[in-house]
Write a structure and sequence with these properties.
Helices cover 10% and strands 40% of the residues. It has a single domain, classed as glutathione-dependent formaldehyde- activating enzyme (gfa) (Alpha-Beta Complex), CATH 3.90.1590.10. Strand 6 and strand 7 form a beta hairpin. The strands form three sheets. It has a five-stranded mixed beta sheet. It has a three-stranded antiparallel beta sheet with strand order 1-2-5, with no helix packed on it. The protein has two helices and eleven strands.
Length: 156
């Protein structure tokens, strides 16, 4: 089981800051097409319950409904990614997936899982042993209830 810590963070320009309670020391990587396009690489994030995160400078937060079930947010001044969040009430709902790069201190954090591992570029290779799930395994375990079989090839 992962330990948790209270952490602070901010976007690149400092217009948006956050405090988060109970941030897990474990984080994961998502290699889906959408996350790679959004971040330019794998999306490295940890899940924190929505009630444990407080954002400041919210007037600078912009959001987009990036799929039928999730949104992404960023700072409108510097473009820093702030979260990925499931919005449909599915299995992953109730958490902010916060990029680990937001945190002021990442001491003790470690990569433990990778999803969409079967679609990652060959050049992406992380050191250490991680739990890996393919696209099909992710959708079989976490597929939002309203996603049709035809949409199962979509990204998160």
């Amino acid at each position: 089981m992962s330990a948790t810590h209270d952490r602070t963070g901010r976007c690149m320009c400092g217009a948006v800051t956050l405090t988060a309670r109970g941030v897990p020391d474990e984080f994961g990587a998502c290699h889906c097409d959408m996350c790679r396009r959004w971040t330019g690489a794998a999306f490295l994030a940890t899940a924190v319950p929505e009630g444990n995160v407080r954002f400041f400078g919210t007037e600078h937060i912009k959001r987009v409904q990036s799929s039928a079930w999730a949104e992404r947010a960023w700072c409108d001044l510097c473009g820093t990614h702030l979260w990925y969040r499931v919005t449909d009430g599915g299995v992953w709902s109730g958490n902010f997936e916060l990029p680990i790069g937001l945190f002021d201190d990442t001491a003790g954090m470690r990569l433990v899982s990778e999803i969409y591992h079967d679609v990652k570029p060959d050049a992406f290779a992380f050191a250490g042993d991680t739990k890996k799930m393919t696209r099909a395994e992710v959708f079989a375990k976490f597929r939002p209830g309203h996603v049709s079989k035809e949409q199962s090839n979509d990204t998160i």
